[in-house]
Sequence to fold (280 residues):
Amino acid sequence: MTTREFWRSIEAIHDIVYFAPEATQRYADLGLKGYWMGYFASRSAALGPADPQVVTALFHGFAPSRVARALPDAWSLASPSDILAARQDAATEVLTRVLEQVEGEVDVARTADALQNLSTLLDLAGRPLAAAHRAAPVPTDPVGRLWHAATVLREYRGDSHVAVLTAAGLGGAEANALSAANGLVGMKQHEMRGWTDEEWIAAFGRLQQFGWVDGTDATETGRVARERIEDATDRSCSAGLDQEGTARAYALVPSLVPIARATEAAGLMAYPNPTGVPRP
Fold:
């Protein structure tokens, strides 16, 4: 097992809140309108009532128009603190159900405490979403702590990944197109992220200028480029953890992988999926 399995497991555990109907219902109960308003408001709520331009910049892969249809209107319907609490409650409820599948295999309390301690070791310089979520209230129950810590770590890697993508000269549409060309997400990814057909075609055109795609298929150069982006993200993540923290992450893999795979068995994760993160 490797630390990449650690990060893939963290992604799966965190992502349950995006695919569980419990979360969508809680946001609707608060007055939020539709899936995307719930998504953008709940994921950015730790920042406070953030402006859509700020959220677009931090989330990176979404078309500005899609974010602007949800924010700032969401903040007039529910407060960020209420949205954040609803999200945490939904995640705890859903993760509790998932953990029933690994009962006796994983020590949930011990794993939650270890993951929470690991999240406090992160160097959050340049990682705003991770910092915002680490500053959010930490739940007292083990399942809640487990999801909260996974969220901090997930956004930590996400912040690192965005920095690597922008350094490589990739905007949101191009980053999605490169993932699609490499088979990590579906070719209709642009519809999920809010890009128009014209913007999607233009994104592939820019990748073709790099020699990374031939039509909509990744070239060998494009496959290597995408793998190098993952490697650079791994290095960025490692730079924010000292040797002790890296060892702790590695030690948690045997506990996290079964939980991550249980999310798939519960129908909450599918591969491939819009995040583009492979199965742990």
User: Anything to note?
Assistant: The chain has a mean pLDDT of 96.
